[in-house]
Specification:
Length: 572
C-alpha cells in the first residue's frame, strides 16, 4: 500500500517515518554491514543502525498505544510527545558507533521540534532547523570528528535542507527531498575524504545508513520512494561496488586532525553503557574516556546518556562511568585477535574469527574480567535479564564461525537456547554450556582453548563448569519459606547450588558457614566475587579461613560491582 503523503511533520509523520526507515534498514542491513570498514571493520553498522531505530520505533508505538488505551478526547499524541519518544527510544537502544550517532541526530531533531515554543506541527523551515540542529549536535557528541563519515553526510543533508527551507513556499516534502539529495551526494564523496574508504572501494557505512533513513523521510512526506533507496544503486559511481557478503579490505589509519577510529595502540574492546549522571560529571567522564581510548561518542542529556568508547582497559572505562553516576545496560565486546584493531593486519571485513565465547554476567566488574579473557560479555543487571535478541546480537558481534554461549544463570537457559537456535540458522555453529552461575563461567573460560577442535573445547569447558560448585550470599527482601526454614526480611541467606542452605544474621559468619559446607566435599580452588554491598573484610576473612583450615586450596578474589548477590562463591 503506498504511503499517504504528509505535507507537514506531525506525530503521525514521526510514526510513519520510524516504520518506513526500520523496514528500509532491514532490507539494507546486510549491504551496510558488508561495507563497514571504519572506524572498525567489524561488519555490524547496518545491524546496529537497525537495532537503534527499532528501539526508537518501539517507543513511538508505545506512545500511540497509550493514547489509544486511554480513550482520551485527543486522537493521538502531540508531535512533541512523539519526537521525544523517538529520541528517548533511540538513546536507550543505541548500538555501536553509528547507532549512537543516529540517536544523537534524532535527539537533536527532537530538541527543536519539541521545544516549548515549537508549533503543533512542523513546516518546511521548521524541519530544516531540526535537521541543522541534529547535524550540529551529533558532531559535538563525537570527541574527534572526522570528515568522510556519517557526520559529513549529516552536515551536507542539513546544508541542503536549509537552502531549500529558505526558498518561498517550500513544504516539508521538498525540504526532506533536498536533505536526502544532499546526503546522497556527500555519501558518494566520502571515499575521497577518508583514505580507508578509498582503499576499500566503499562509501561510509554509517553515512549509507543515514541516506536510507532520509529516503524514508522523503517517502513519509511525499508518498514517493526515492529511486535509489536500497541496494548498491543507492550510491552512484565506482565507490559502492561491494555486494552483500563481499569482502571489503582496509584497516583504519590514524587521522592527523583526530579520529573516531583506531589509533596506534589498537584498543581491544568496545564498551557501551547507559549512564545516569549530571552534566558536570559527564564532562569529566568525557576527558577521562578520551584519555583511555578512541571512538568516543557520548550522547544524551537531561540526566541520561549513552556512552560509547573503544579501549584496551574495559574495566577502567566502566569504573569511570561508576565514578560519574550509575552505568547500566553495559555491553563489552572484544574485537578479537587479528581483527581491524590489531596493528599491521589486513583482515577482510567478511572474514570471521574461528571461535568466540559469549557470556552473560551479573556485574560490571565481571563484565570487564570476562572481556579481558577474550569473551563478549552481556551484562544482566538485577531485574533486567537480557532477551534472546540481545544474545543474538552479541553472538553476531563476536563475528565467529563457532561460538560457545555461557548463560551463567539457570533462568536464562531457555532464552540462551532460543538465541542459539536463531543464529544456527545463520550458519554459525553454537554450543550452549548450561552454566548456572558466573563462577562456573569463569571456570569454563579458564580452560577455553580456541586452537583445539570445537567439540573438544566444548567438552573441556563443560567439564570445568560442571566440576565447580557455586553459591551466593544475599540478603532476604521479605519473609519466605526456604529449604533451610523460614527467613525474615533482612536475614542473610547462603544459597548452595541454587537452594537456601544457611540462614544467618551476620554476613561474614553466614559466608563462612557456606564456604565450610562447600569445602567439606573437597576442592582445589575457591573463587570469591564481591558485590558492591560486601566489605573487603569478608574476602580477607574467608581467605584466612581457607589458608588456615584447608591445605593446598588456593583462593582468588574478584570485584563484581552491582551484581545482585553480596557475594558469589565457586569451588573447583
Amino acid at each position: 500500500m503506498p504511503q499517504v503523503p504528509q505535507t507537514f511533520f506531525d506525530a503521525l509523520a514521526v510514526r510513519a517515518w520510524c516504520g518506513l526507515a526500520l523496514d528500509a534498514l532491514g532490507r539494507a542491513r546486510e549491504e551496510i554491514d558488508a561495507i563497514n570498514v571504519y572506524p572498525v571493520a567489524d561488519g555490524d553498522t547496518g545491524t546496529n543502525l537497525y537495532l537503534t531505530l527499532e528501539s526508537a520505533a518501539t517507543a513511538v508505538e508505545a506512545v500511540f498505544a497509550g493514547h489509544e488505551a486511554g480513550g482520551g478526547a485527543e486522537p493521538g499524541p502531540a508531535m512533541a510527545e512523539a519526537v521525544r519518544a523517538m529520541a528517548h527510544g533511540a538513546l536507550i537502544g543505541a548500538r555501536g558507533n553509528s547507532g549512537t550517532i543516529l540517536a544523537q541526530l534524532l535527539r537533536g531533531m527532537a530538541q527543536v521540534l519539541a521545544s516549548d515554543d515549537a508549533p503543533a506541527h512542523a513546516d518546511g523551515p521548521g524541519l530544516g532547523r531540526a535537521l541543522r540542529h541534529a547535524a550540529d549536535s551529533a558532531r559535538q557528541a563525537v570527541a574527534h570528528p572526522v570528515e568522510g563519515t556519517v557526520l559529513t553526510v549529516a552536515s551536507a543533508a542539513a546544508d541542503a535542507a536549509a537552502t531549500a527551507a529558505g526558498a518561498a513556499d517550500r513544504d516539508c516534502g521538498e525540504v526532506a527531498r533536498a536533505a536526502y539529495e544532499g546526503a546522497r551526494a556527500a555519501l558518494a564523496e566520502t571515499p575521497d575524504r577518508l583514505d580507508v574508504l578509498r582503499r576499500a572501494g566503499v562509501v561510509d557505512a554509517g553515512g549509507r545508513g543515514l541516506v536510507t533513513v532520509l529516503a524514508a523521510l522523503v517517502e513519509t512526506l511525499t508518498g514517493q520512494t526515492p529511486r535509489t533507496t536500497a541496494g548498491r544503486a543507492a550510491v552512484p559511481g565506482p565507490h559502492a561496488r561491494v555486494e552483500p557478503g563481499e569482502a571489503a579490505h582496509g584497516t583504519p589509519a590514524p587521522c592527523e586532525d583526530g579520529d573516531t577510529g583506531a589509533r596506534d595502540g589498537s584498543p581491544a574492546f568496545e564498551v557501551i553503557y547507559l549512564l545516569e549522571a549530571g552534566d558536570a560529571a559527564v564532562a569529566r567522564l568525557r576527558k577521562r574516556l578520551d584519555a583511555l581510548g578512541d571512538s568516543l561518542v557520548v550522547v544524551g542529556g537531561d540526566g541520561l546518556w549513552n556512552v560509547h568508547v573503544h579501549v584496551d582497559d574495559a574495566g577502567a572505562a566502566v569504573e569511570a562511568g561508576v565514578e560519574a553516576g550509575r552505568p547500566y545496560r553495559i555491553r563489552i565486546t572484544h574485537f578479537g585477535t587479528g581483527d581491524a584493531h590489531a596493528p599491521g593486519t589486513e583482515r577482510t571485513r567478511g572474514e570471521r574469527v574461528q571461535r568466540a565465547v559469549v557470556a552473560v554476567v551479573p556485574g560490571e566488574g565481571l563484565a570487564g574480567l570476562y572481556a579481558e579473557a577474550g569473551a563478549t560479555a552481556v551484562l544482566a543487571r538485577p531485574g533486567e535479564p537480557p532477551a534472546s535478541g540481545e544474545l543474538v546480537q552479541a553472538v553476531r558481534r563476536a563475528h565467529a564461525r563457532e561460538v560457545v554461549l555461557l548463560p551463567n544463570d539457570a533462568d536464562l537457559r531457555h532464552t540462551a537456547a532460543a538465541a542459539a537456535e536463531q543464529v544456527r540458522g545463520e550458519g554459525i555453529r553454537v554450543a550452549l554450556i548450561p552454566t548456572r552461575s558466573a563462577v562456573q563461567g569463569i571456570a569454563a573460560l579458564a580452560v577455553h582453548e580456541p586452537e583445539r577442535r570445537f567439540d573438544e573445547d566444548v567438552v573441556a569447558m563443560t567439564s570445568a563448569a560442571g566440576a565447580t560448585r557455586y553459591a551466593e550470599v544475599t540478603v532476604a527482601e521479605r519473609q519466605s519459606w526456604t529449604m533451610a526454614g523460614i527467613c525474615q526480611a533482612g536475614d542473610v541467606l547462603g544459597l548452595v547450588d541454587g537452594d537456601v542452605a544457611v540462614i544467618g544474621q551476620d554476613l561474614t559468619a553466614t559466608a563462612e558457614a557456606v564456604l565450610d559446607r562447600m569445602l567439606a566435599a573437597g576442592g582445589e580452588l575457591v573463587t570469591l566475587v564481591l558485590g558492591d554491598g560486601a566489605p573487603q573484610s569478608v574476602a580477607e576473612r574467608l581467605e584466612a579461613r581457607v589458608r588456615e583450615g584447608y591445605l593446598a586450596v588456593d583462593t582468588v578474589v574478584y570485584h563484581g560491582g552491582r551484581q545482585g548477590a553480596v557475594l558469589l562463591i565457586g569451588v573447583e
